[in-house]
What we know:
By secondary structure, this protein is of the alpha/beta class. The protein is about 35% helix and about 25% strand.
Amino acid sequence: MRDIRAFDPDETVRTWVRDNLDxxxxxxxxxxxxxxxxxxxxxxxxxxxxxxxxxxxxxxxxVFVEKPLAHTREDVDDLLRVVAEKNLVxxxxxxxxxYPMVRKVKxxxxxxxxxxxxxxxxxxxxxxxxWRPTLDYRKNYGARRAMGGGVILDFIHELDYTRWFFGPxxxxxxxxxxxxxxxxxxxxLAEILIWFQKGVLAEIxxxxxxxxxxxxxxxxxxxxxxxxxxxERTVRLYRPDLEQPQVFPLPExxxxxxxxxxxxxxxxxxxxxxxxxxxxFAAAAEVLDIALASHASVETxxxxxxxxxxAG
Length: 312
């Protein structure tokens, strides 16, 4: 039986959802949880994620949380404990793990296509007011530190898939600040260096300032390079034994929304089979630790050491 209900604190939003999506609406989140939902999707501002997820888990629901899992460690350990005790299926937002080009980079790295990996350069940037042009960017969570904004948490996808490529992190050092004219109280530019336990050094550039949307990856190994550029819509493999780079194009006619649909299918199938997802909350917490270590490095101007996969 189909029973989908939506909660939003804004009555205008609830009215629109009810009238346009034929979905029942709830005016109180905790009251809605008393109806024992099977699955809860949390897509609220970042600073609400962990607490809302914890309440959903206590209600016995399988839970999806949009990235990042949280903006601090508050409630995270309790959330992980309840999820484990109740054997719940969880998924942190990780749509780029379902994007064909990112998956191809992962495949080539795992297959040893360029031998031992030495380093990687990852870049992501977009002018913040262009993200959601129908909203005043100054009122959005990304512009407000108290709501979990700033490029380090907002672009946590890059931290996530970099860790997916190269494994547990050993050390993090970062520089970040607000350098542009945006009316925000968060960092709009960050450079993060990560030493992975496997010996890979990754440099991650994040910004709210680029007038042209940017996402790209360059991985250097002992026998070649792997490069992905968002605008070229290809992954390229460069090796001296290849006369020309091997090119892996994005499938013809690929709809960007497909990665979100694939992510959703993965979550629902994992619930059906009662198996762990590709990015359960325990893994999302480890990536959150990298982001928080980056913030700590900015504040202390020190290298931050992490334990095996998470904060140490």
